[in-house]
Each structure stands twice: as structure tokens, then as C-alpha cells.
């Protein structure tokens, strides 16, 4: 702070904390419902609404329920959703991922017609579609980089064709943003935006997601492609590469364990930056909330606020609707 400022007792920091009006006047960080993206799990089979035990309040939804849920989220002030698909069948190529009648493609068409102004983002990755649960094509127990790029590009183009506004590659293969960008350019959807999961760490906090998407790897783990949590400079290199390959927005994931990365990315590149508060972060808060150890609205809001304060322009969070509603009551 500036050296010319007075000292106590001439300066009293508490003066500006005295009333809600004063505090609002000098607040540095704002959170609006439209800063929040709601991730949704769309399933091709089974009952309309399937609770996820490790994520209280989050369900896998059939398309019709997803359309309703997206409408309710819109009414709460949410303006964008991120879609994950759980297909009816899985195989080693993830064939359902780019099927024009696949679960996500159908959901995109239904959501687009019901909610024309809702921004539709799709997760582009094979792990929800492969029987082995890895994010790419596997050969001899290894996840192949270059062979996977073609599959991801086909998936992204099919999402664009079904109405996605933004495709979000989350696989962590090298060169995938460039490959997807080139495929979109060569398609009739060159204006589809790319949100790259750029600094995506091999995190223990994705556990509940793997229950939700039924995508736990059948062997090994994801450390040969996702980032090592011990590294930070490497995250900047990942972001630089994705931007050079044409990413419109970059993402850091997970969020609360990576606030330092969010800040470095924003300060270094100044580009649109997202952060993903992942399933395990949500589960952790909810576990304490259901025991009465934390107050739900306050805890969720403070977590989002911290992620915004670290430099994220927007936050993907399973608590989007709850936080949006609590913001509106403020
Ligand atoms: C797909 C993907 C994952 C998540 C987002 N996209 C799972 C993973 O990488 O294992 C995690 C999201 C969450 O935990 O909420 N690759």
C-alpha cells in the first residue's frame, strides 16, 4: 500500500467495514450469476433423474429433464451450461462420441430449441465414451496422443454441428486445440469457440465425477497426460501452447487447490480465463454442509469469490444455481 497513507490512529481500516453500504462501495471482486457455468451430466439411458451419491444435489439427467433443469438455471440467472454425456454403450474407440445421434448431440439440439439464448458448452474428451475409461485411444496399455487427436476433432465438429457454442477439450493430449481448430475451420462451423482445459492437473479431486460419468480408468491413472500438481511453470507453458494453437479461453482445473495458477495465468497472459471448481471440491463442501459443520450459502459463495479474486473471469461449478440464488437475495 502507498507509503503516503496515514497510520493508526489517523487511519482506521475498520471505518470502511462499518455498514453493508460502505463495504459494497469498496469491494474489489464481484460475482454475478452470469459468471457461473453449470456442468450437467446427460445420460442416454435409465430413469429420468439419477442421483450421484458423492455429489448431493447433482443428478444424471435424461435429455427432457436436462432441458427443464437448464430452464430453471436460466431463471436463476445462469447463462451457460457445460455438458457431459454418458452414452448407452462404450467401446475402445469411444465411437459414440461423434455420433450425430449421440447423447450430447441430441441434448444440444433439444436445449438449443428450448433455450435459444443459453450458451452451450460441451466437454470434448473420450473418457466418458471408452470402455477402458481413458481420455484417448489405447494401444498396448498406452494412451496414444496423435491417434486420439483425430477422434477429438471429429467429436468437436459433431458437437458444433449439433449446436454447441463452445467446445471444451479436456483430454490433455498435446496438439489437440490446434487439431480441433483446424477441423472446425475446415467444417462449416469455424466460429465455434474453444475453451481449453489448459492447466488440468492429475487431481485426486475428480473422484466423484468418475462416479457420475462412469469413467474411472480401468487400469492405471491419468498421470501420463494430465499435469503433475507439483508444477506451476509447466501450467504457463500449457496455456501458452493452447493460446498459440487458437484457444479462445483457457481453463485451470481444479480451482481452489490451484488459485496460485489462476493468478499466474491471468497475470501472465491476460486472456479470458476460466476455473473449474471440480466434483471433489463440491463434494468436500457438501459433506461438511450435510453434517452441519459449514453454512451452505456462505461457504459456497466464499469459495467462488476466492476463485474470482484469484483472477478467473468465470467459474464452472456444481453449486452454480445455489450461488446464483443466494447472490440474488443479497
Ligand atoms: C474428462 C473430464 C473430467 C473432469 C472434467 N472433464 C474427469 C477426469 O479428467 O478424470 C472432471 C470434472 C470434475 O471432477 O468435476 N476428462
Task: Give a structural overview.
The protein is of the alpha/beta class and 330 residues long. The protein has one domain: Aldolase class I (TIM Barrel, Alpha-Beta Barrel), CATH 3.20.20. Helices cover 38% and strands 18% of the residues. The chain has eleven helices and twelve strands. The chain has helices spanning 20-25, 63-76, 103-114, 145-161, 176-185, 207-213, 233-244, 259-269, 279-290, 296-309, 320-329, and strands at residues 36-43, 49-51, 59-61, 80-86, 119-124, 137-139, 142-144, 166-169, 193-200, 249-253, 273-277, 314-317. The strands form two sheets. Strands 1-4-5-8-9-10-11-12 form an eight-stranded parallel beta barrel, surrounded by nine helices. It has a two-stranded antiparallel ribbon with strand order 6-7. Helix 2 packs across helix 3 (103-114), helix 7 packs across helix 8 (259-269) and helix 10 packs across helix 11. The site of ligand PBG has 11 residues, from helix 6.
Rg for CA atoms: 20 Å
Mean pLDDT figure? 97
Give me the CATH fold name. Answer: TIM Barrel
Total helices: the number is 11
Q: How many domain units?
A: 1
Give the strand order, joined by hyphens, for the main sheet: 1-4-5-8-9-10-11-12
Q: Estimate the strand proportion.
A: 15-25%
Low-confidence stretches: none
Question: Which CATH architecture?
Answer: Alpha-Beta Barrel
Amino acid at each position: 500500500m502507498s507509503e503516503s497513507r496515514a497510520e493508526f490512529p489517523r487511519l482506521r481500516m475498520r471505518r470502511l467495514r462499518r455498514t453493508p453500504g460502505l463495504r459494497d462501495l469498496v469491494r474489489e471482486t464481484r460475482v454475478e450469476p452470469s459468471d457461473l457455468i453449470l456442468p450437467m451430466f446427460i445420460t442416454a439411458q435409465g430413469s429420468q433423474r439419477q442421483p450421484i451419491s458423492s455429489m448431493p444435489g447433482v443428478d444424471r439427467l435424461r435429455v427432457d429433464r436436462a432441458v427443464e433443469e437448464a430452464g430453471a438455471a436460466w431463471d436463476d440467472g445462469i447463462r451457460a451450461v457445460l455438458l457431459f454425456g454418458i452414452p448407452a454403450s462404450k467401446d475402445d474407440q469411444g465411437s459414440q462420441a461423434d455420433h450425430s445421434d449421440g447423447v450430447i448431440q441430441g441434448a444440444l439440439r433439444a436445449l438449443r430449441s428450448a433455450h435459444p439464448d443459453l450458451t452451450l458448452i460441451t466437454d470434448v474428451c473420450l473418457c466418458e465414451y471408452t470402455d477402458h475409461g481413458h481420455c484417448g485411444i489405447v494401444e498396448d496399455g498406452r494412451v496414444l496422443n496423435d491417434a486420439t487427436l483425430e477422434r477429438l476433432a471429429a467429436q468437436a465438429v459433431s458437437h458444433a454441428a449439433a449446436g454447441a457454442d463452445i467446445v471444451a477439450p479436456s483430454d490433455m493430449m498435446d496438439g489437440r486445440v490446434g487439431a480441433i481448430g483446424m477441423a472446425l475451420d475446415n467444417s462449416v462451423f469455424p466460429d465455434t469457440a474453444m475453451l481449453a482445459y489448459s492447466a488440468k492437473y492429475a487431481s485426486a479431486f475428480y473422484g466423484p465425477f468418475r462416479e457420475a460419468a462412469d469413467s474411472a480408468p480401468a487400469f492405471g491413472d491419468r498421470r501420463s497426460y494430465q499435469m503433475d500438481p507439483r508444477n506451476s511453470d509447466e501450467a504457463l507453458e500449457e496455456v501458452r501452447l493452447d493460446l498459440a494453437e487458437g484457444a479462445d479461453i483457457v481453463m485451470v482445473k481444479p480451482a481452489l487447490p490451484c488459485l496460485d495458477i489462476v493468478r499466474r495465468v491471468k497475470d501472465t497472459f491476460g486472456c479470458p480465463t476460466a476455473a473449474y471448481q471440480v466434483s471433489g471440491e463440491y463434494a468436500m463442501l457438501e459433506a461438511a454442509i450435510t453434517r452441519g459443520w459449514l453454512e451452505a450459502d456462505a461457504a459456497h459463495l466464499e469459495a467462488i469469490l476466492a476463485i474470482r479474486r484469484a483472477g478467473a473471469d468465470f467459474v464452472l461449478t456444481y453449486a452454480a444455481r445455489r450461488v446464483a440464488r443466494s447472490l440474488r437475495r443479497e
